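User: quick one, fold this
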Amino acid sequence: MAAIFSFGLLSKMVERMVSLSVGIMLATSLLHALPEAFESHANPHSLFFTLMCGLFGFFLLEKLSILRHSHHYEHDGHHHEAGHDKREAGKSGWLIMVGDGLHNFTDGILIAAAFLADPAVGLMTSIAIIAHEIPQEVGDFIVLLNAGFSRKRAFIFNLMCSLLAVVGGIAGYFTLAKAQSWIPYVLVLASSGFIYIAVSDLMPQMQRRTTVRETIPQLILIALGVAIIMALTHGLHPES
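Assistant:
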């Protein structure tokens, strides 16, 4: 009963965080990271080309199962059949580790680029990534538990993947500090990732909740996510 109760609480947390993440990620990318990139001296046509390549690139990575950002697991309300989590976990959980590790390493680079461009954009990019990572990591933790992993082993796997964000941040900082001209393009790639994840993964999950009673909280949380980013904007840049 305790396990079922805890999974129920985690499922509710994931569901709420998904809606909040959509608002935060879209506001960060469309209202801050992209404008910051286009206000630089980089060629706008090259930036738009980078945005297009980023969207196609994330699509391809997901097709190859290299990029994982699904929050689906048994008992999440989406009626997955028995054995879903064992298949998701893959052989010894390596699929989750490789996908999440690469994702987190990239997130670290993106955060470093955002801070180098503008500390305010860096803060908002970090919040957007954290807002998405919480439901993702909770979902992966539940998948590993349902697949037979002990809590300790599942926690260690998730921790190892999370630490790669620190490695990516350090590598990104020292690399991009010497190549300032790359920063606008990395910001555009970050934005393409946020937009792709929000539109291709998070919003379709939300569409499964079709009643008005389920939709209203989603809209409120999306608006709250946008409001958080807008409040940070005015707090960090009062003149804007």
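User: anything notable?
Assistant: DSSP finds eight helices and no strands in the chain.
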